[in-house]
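User: I'm preparing a small set of examples for a lab meeting where we compare how different chains pack in three dimensions. I only have the primary sequence for this one, and I'd like the structure in token form so I can line it up with the others. Please keep the answer compact; I'll paste it straight into my notes.
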Amino acid sequence: MKYLSDITLPLILIIALILLANPYMFWMPTPLHMVILIIFIIAFVLFGTFLWKEKATDEREHLHKFIVGRYAFLTITTMLVVGIIVQTLSHTLDMWLVFALVIGMLAKVIGSIYTRTQL
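Assistant: Understood. Below is the structure token output for the 119-residue chain.
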């Protein structure tokens, strides 16, 4: 149960996303859909807050945070690129995928420049 606190909030986010995907209003009416959206927003804000306040105590923990961040970034950008490719081939490109990829890449570049100038 050591990692329960690390797993609980992301699990709530994943469950909320699955419920929000609700194709054709299959398992949830619209009013409940809005409640799940509010739960998702609150959980995401809490998740972001905990991630931001996370502190490493030594060099090894810093390295682990950097490795995890790199894996997360590469996984998310790869999924966005795959989504862009699939939707482009089907001629239904959703600009939110492009927007998310551009913002993620810009955040990575700006974050890298910022950390190099601050350290």
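A couple of notes for your slides: The two ends are 36 Å apart (CA to CA). The first helix runs from residue 4 to 21.

User: Perfect, thanks.
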